[in-house]
Amino acid sequence: MTIFRISGRCIASPPPPDWREHLTEMLGAKPRRIGTWAELGLYGALRCMADAGEAELPKDAVLMLSSQRGTYAATDIVLAQMREDLPMPLAFLQTQPSQLLALLAAQLKWQGHACFFADTQLAALLHLAAAQAGSSGVLLGWVDEMDGGASNWLRLACATAPGISFMPANPDNVIFSPATSHILISTGQLQIGHTNA
Q1: Are 101 and 116 within 8 A, CB to CB?
Q2: Which of 7, 58, 73, 192 is most buried (most C-beta within 10 Å)?
Q3: What's the pTM?
Q4: Closest Cα to residue 41, out of 66, 76, 78, 68?
Q5: Are the C-beta atoms of residues 6 and 181 closer than 8 Å to each other?
Q6: Residue 196: which region, alpha, beta or left (left: phi > 0; alpha: psi -120 to 50)?
Q7: Which candidate, 195, 130, 137, 124, places its Cα nearest to that of 166?
Q8: Number of folded domains that form the chain
Q9: Is the peptide bond before 97 cis (omega within 30 degrees of 0)?
Q10: pLDDT digit of tens for each residue in the chain (197 aa)?
């Protein structure tokens, strides 16, 4: 059994109209040579870390990223370029989800275990996070640029949660709720604790 406390979150589905300006402010400069998908991911992850009060990700934390469609738009551009000739190197680089993981590692001054999962169910990703989390927990994100875009992130810290009452949960509906403060993960089930419990 693993208990996580949600110490930070960013729910941006869709992100606000001025999200790129906020990203530029957080980075101190306009990002260059990265695609929209990676920009969305940076925006959400940095907002989540700021919400958690952290500027750096601890060395033994795990970084996990998922997406329903991944770098779909960049891949579509590269496929169109391939019909004419070889794809442009920068365009090809933007098709790689791992580009975002490397950008986050550099921005958060972090080295460790990072992975990308395509179209993973939230419950499965949380179970995997529980199995792989170190003592400093997990930074967990879901990023998509289609249908208005989404950059949803949770900073999960390992916890004991004394005095929290847990109840079974459908993760798609309640994990990102501001009222959810804790997640309990055990074999075959997910439960949540509320701040008002």
Answers
A1: yes
A2: 192
A3: 0.87
A4: 66
A5: yes
A6: alpha
A7: 195
A8: 1
A9: no
A10: 899 999 999 999 899 999 999 999 999 999 888 888 889 999 999 999 999 999 999 999 999 999 877 776 766 677 777 788 877 766 666 667 778 899 999 999 999 999 988 877 888 888 889 999 888 999 999 999 888 889 999 999 998 877 788 888 776 657 888 888 999 998 878 888 886 54
Find the angle CA(192)-CA(166)-CA(178) to the nearest 5 degrees.
40
The CATH number of whichever domain residue 58 belongs to comes to 3.40.47.10
Helix (H) or strand (E) holding 10: strand 2-10
Q: What tokens were used for 186?
A: 């055990």
Q: Distance (Å, rounded) from C-alpha 33 to C-alpha 48?
A: 23
For strand 2-10 and strand 62-67, is the pairing parallel, antiparallel, or unpaired? unpaired
Give the structural domain span for 37.
2-194
